[in-house]
Design a protein that fits this description.
Layout: H1 4-16, E1 20-21, H2 24-32, E2 41-42, E3 45-47, H3 51-64, E4 68-72, H4 74-78, H5 87-94, E5 98-102, H6 119-141, E6 147-149, H7 157-165, E7 169-171, H8 199-206
Parallel strand pairs: 1-2, 3-4, 4-5, 6-7
Helix pairs in contact: 1-3
Length: 215
C-alpha cells in the first residue's frame, strides 16, 4: 500500500526535517508519565506481519537508524505463510530497533459475531485472539510491549475495558495526535499509505498539534 520509493521519500523527509523518530512503547510511557518528548517526535508503525516489511521497509529504516513497531497477526506466521514474517526475521529486526506488538491471531473483525455464535462464545474467542498473541510475543521474542492494534481499527467499550485491565494500550485507525490526555485504550494514528502516501499532505499530519477539548 506504499511503494519503496514513497517510503524512502517519507523517511528522508523525517531525517532532513529533523524529526525525532522514537520507539513507540517508550514514547507512550514518557507521555503518560508527563515526561516531555523531543520536539517533532514521531513513531512509525506497520499493521500485519507481511514479509515485505522485512524485505522492503526494514533496509530503509535500518540505514537511517529509525526504530519502528510492527503489529503482527500470528496466525499466518505460525502457519509458515510465505507472504508473512518469520520469527527469525523478527528477531533480526529487533536488533535494529524493531518492536513487535499484538494484532490478534487471525485478524478478525472484533465486533462481529460469527454465524450462530453466542455472545459468550464470541467473547471467549476474542479474548483468546488477544491473549494468544501476548503469549507468543513473550515466548518467541522475549517480551511484549503490551500494545494492541485493533484489526480494521474497530473496538468497543467492552474490548477497550478488557485491554486496559490487562495493562495493554489500544490503537485504532482514526487520525489524530497522541498526547497526555489521549484515550490510551483507543489511540489515533495518521495513515501514510495508499491514498494517504502523498508527502505534501503527510507533512501537514506530521506537523499537527493536539487540540484538547475541555467540554
Amino acid at each position: 500500500s506504499v511503494t519503496p520509493a514513497q517510503f524512502t521519500e517519507h523517511m528522508d523527509y523525517l531525517r532532513d526535517a529533523n524529526f525525532q523518530v522514537l520507539p513507540l512503547a517508550q514514547a507512550l510511557a514518557d507521555i503518560r508519565a508527563g515526561k516531555p518528548l523531543p520536539d517533532k517526535a514521531v513513531a512509525i508503525t506497520f499493521d500485519d506481519a507481511y514479509r515485505n516489511i522485512y524485505e522492503q521497509g526494514f533496509p530503509i529504516l535500518k540505514e537511517r537508524g529509525f526504530p519502528f513497531t510492527v503489529f503482527i497477526n500470528t496466525g499466518p506466521v505460525e502457519q509458515g505463510n510465505k507472504s508473512f514474517l518469520t520469527w527469525d526475521q523478527m528477531r533480526e529486526m529487533q536488533r535494529f530497533g524493531g518492536e513487535f506488538a499484538n494484532h490478534t491471531v487471525g485478524h478478525p473483525y472484533l465486533l462481529r459475531l460469527e454465524q450462530g455464535e453466542t455472545v459468550e462464545a464470541w467473547w471467549s474467542r476474542i479474548t483468546h485472539e488477544i491473549e494468544q498473541v501476548e503469549t507468543a510475543l513473550t515466548t518467541q521474542l522475549g517480551e511484549s510491549p503490551k500494545m494492541l492494534a485493533y484489526p480494521y481499527g474497530e473496538s468497543d467499550a467492552q474490548i477497550q475495558e478488557y485491554v486496559t485491565d490487562r495493562g495493554i494500550i489500544g490503537f485504532g485507525q482514526q487520525s489524530g495526535v497522541v498526547y497526555q490526555g489521549s484515550d490510551f485504550a483507543n489511540l489515533p494514528r495518521f495513515p501514510a499509505a495508499g491514498h494517504y502516501a502523498k508527502l505534501a499532505t503527510l507533512k501537514t499530519k506530521l506537523n499537527a498539534k493536539p487540540m484538547p477539548l475541555i467540554d
